[in-house]
Design goal:
The complex is a heterodimer of chains A (307) and B (280). Chain A is of the alpha/beta class. Chain A has helices at residues 46-53, 75-79, 97-106, 114-123, 139-151, 169-186, 197-203, 221-226, 239-245, 272-281, 295-306; strands at 6-17, 20-31, 35-39, 61-66, 69-70, 82-85, 157-161, 189-194, 206-211, 214-220, 229-236, 255-258, 262-268, 286-292. In chain A, strands 6-7-8-3-9-10 form a six-stranded mixed β-sheet, sandwiched between helices. In chain A, a hairpin with a 3-residue loop joins strand 12 (255-258) and strand 13. Chain B is mainly alpha-helical. A two-stranded antiparallel sheet of chain B has the order 1-2. In chain B, helix 4 runs antiparallel to helix 9 (199-217), helix 7 (111-145) packs antiparallel against helix 8 and helix 8 crosses helix 9. The longest helix of chain B is centred in the middle third of the chain and has 35 residues, at 111-145. Chain B starts with a helix and ends in a 5-residue tail after the last helix. The chains are: A alpha/beta (307), B mainly alpha (280). At the A-B interface, helix 2 and helix 3 of A face helix 1 and helix 6 of B.
Chain lengths: 307, 280
């Protein structure tokens, strides 16, 4: 199979809820084996797009192709090979976790054995609580059960909408590790939606950023992020003295704020080591250099660049 | 796949506490009625037949399981809709409230299959509740009070059915009651497809039934004209099976109208659900 085979193709996808244009002429392509980051701030149209991908919402216009087939005409065949978590992980609260998975397995379109269900419960660390009703589960446990149900039928494409929401740092790391493992060891194609850039940066090879329903940028994560300007917080003993040393440099103009022992400036990522070297050579003791790259900042850098 | 979906729906229905409210209500109410009839039934029977005793000699076990079951069926078919609605209104709206629409609709099953399985499961629940009512009133009634002739006092007639001529009438009457209650179930599911919370469909369904029943009961010329268009006007036509001869044309017309309502509600629900954006 060609490694560049398109698993998801979206052309001119638009969704309008009365006066609200939620998704506007969106185009994107996800290749086989990609961990594809789907980024955007809250309300950008990520979940609406994902719901259209999973046939929960009917597009106003546009085409969705998955595995080379149009979703509208091949819905059943396509969904038999797609696993998903859409927003918060909801289950039949009054049933045990294992019963929830058994129900979903029966309508997954593939043969799912009891052994497979137990393996998945073990994978997500819920085997000991398999017979507990879901209403007794914490949010994190439900999130992990959500991952298990998405993998039940061993799908080729996995769509994860904000899968780490509400998880503690350990839980977030476990999900990230699982995504990387599914991609590398089982060659799954994963569409991962998030509003946290660092989360995408850690696992995705390609990404798209959308805002107000429209695409802002799409491409390889490494290329997109390396070319960006970062805000860096520089912690020193005396910020004013340190800034004086920068007065005659190109960095001086980009200083944004100064407090007693730290200052913030905007800088190209590749120039950070050079700045550090300059400060140290001028006997400024740098305690820390902390890149601050919020999605919002990244948007601003892209949109201002576009202008 | 549809049978799998129905099995899953039935599992979900019968794992919910609210499903048993109807069974518990009937399980408490009918034995209480039996007890009341056991203690005071003879007086009640004498009161109801006081006009007949001057002209006829009434012999045999008239306070029997058939008579009591007939009274209970008359009394409860008006109230059973509420018990049906409690479950039926939750079938679709409950999935929206719980956020589990997403689990169902992202699987390789069609929306029509989902609606069909919900309808059929709702009908099975309705049937099981009516059959439970039949068991509690008829079977338990026969065990406690024994069998005998059934006296049915109409507006202008008194019919006495021999005990060998009764049971099949009850079978058909309960079958008709299931059909009537299926209309209620279908209406509740229809309302359930419109919203994301079961309270609205429960209230709406009951409001419609109460309004229609009141409109059917008022004997005013203008209301008499709209009565044929109210499905509640046909819901109590199971009584025709306790007529002699049975007006088959009337029964057939009622069955057609009630079935037509079920088909209309099912079709409307399917169309709404097919186009519904799942935002919950």
């Amino acid at each position: 199979m060609n490694s560049k085979e398109n698993v998801i193709e979206i052309y001119g996808l638009t969704k309008r809820f009365k006066e609200v244009l939620a998704v506007n002429e969106l185009e994107l392509t996800v290749n086989r084996g990609d961990v594809f980051g789907f980024l955007g701030p809250n309300g950008a149209g990520k979940s609406t797009t994902i719901r259209m991908l999973l046939s929960l919402i009917t597009p106003t216009s546009g085409t969705i192709k998955i595995f080379g087939k149009t979703l509208l005409e091949n819905r059943k065949e396509i969904l038999a090979n797609v696993g998903s978590i859409v927003e918060k992980p909801d289950f039949y609260q009054y049933l045990p976790a294992i019963k929830n998975l058994e129900i979903l397995a029966k309508i997954s379109g593939k043969e799912v054995t009891h052994k497979r269900i137990l393996e998945l419960l073990e994978l997500v660390g819920l085997k000991d609580r398999a017979k507990s009703k879901v209403k007794t589960y914490s949010h994190g446990m439900k999130q992990r059960l959500g991952i298990a149900q998405a993998l039940l039928h061993n799908p080729e494409l996995i769509v994860l909408d904000e899968p780490t929401t509400g998880l503690d740092p350990q839980g977030m790391k476990e999900i990230r590790d699982l995504i990387i493992r599914l991609s590398k060891e089982e060659n799954k194609t994963i569409l991962l939606s998030s509003h946290i850039l660092s989360e995408i940066e850690l696992v995705a090879n390609r990404m798209i950023i959308i805002n107000k329903g429209s695409k802002i940028v799409e491409g390889e994560v490494s290329k997109l992020l390396n070319s960006s300007t970062l805000k860096v917080t520089i912690e020193v003993e005396n910020a004013e003295a340190a800034v004086k040393f920068l007065e005659n440099t190109i960095w001086y103009k980009s200083i944004e704020s100064i407090t007693e022992n730290k200052f913030i400036l905007s800088i190209e990522q590749i120039a950070i080591p050079e700045l550090n070297k300059y400060l140290v050579e001028n006997d400024v003791l740098v305690n820390a250099l902390i890149p601050v790259r919020s999605l919002e900042d990244y948007f601003l850098s892209i949109t201002s660049g576009a202008k | 796949m549809i049978f799998t979906l129905i099995r899953i729906e039935l599992l979900k229905i019968f794992r919910k506490w609210r499903t048993y409210i109807g069974f518990i209500a009937i399980g408490i109410l009918v034995p209480l009625l039996h007890l009341a009839m056991y203690l005071e039934g003879q007086k009640s029977l004498e009161f109801m037949t006081r006009g007949l005793r001057d002209s006829f000699i009434l012999v045999g076990n008239l306070l029997n399981g058939y008579w009591i079951s007939y009274l209970i069926l008359n009394a409860l078919t008006i109230h059973i809709p509420f018990l049906i609605t409690l479950v039926a209104a939750d079938l679709l709206a409950g999935e929206a409230t719980a956020g589990t629409y997403r689990l169902l609709v992202t699987r390789p099953v069609s929306r029509l299959q989902i609606v069909t399985s919900k309808f059929l499961s709702g009908i099975i629940y309705t049937g099981s509740l009516i059959l439970f009512l039949a068991f509690m009133s008829l079977v338990v009634g026969l065990i406690i009070f024994g069998s005998g002739e059934l006296i049915v006092i109409g507006n202008q007639s008194i019919i006495v059915f021999e005990k060998s001529d009764i049971l099949w009438r009850f079978f058909l009457a309960y079958g008709f009651a299931i059909l009537s209650m299926t209309v209620v179930c279908s209406l509740a599911i229809f309302f359930s497809s419109l919203v994301e919370n079961a309270i609205g469909p429960i209230v709406s369904t009951m409001a419609i039934i109460i309004i229609f029943i009141i409109l059917s009961a008022f004997d005013v010329e203008i209301l008499r004209e709209i009565r044929p268009y109210l499905f509640t006007s046909y819901m109590l036509d199971w009584r025709e099976f306790f007529n002699d001869p049975i007006d088959l044309a009337k029964v057939f017309k009622s069955v057609l109208i009630l079935s037509g309502h079920i088909i209309i509600f099912f079709t409307a629900t399917s169309l709404i659900f097919h186009k519904k954006d799942i935002l919950s």
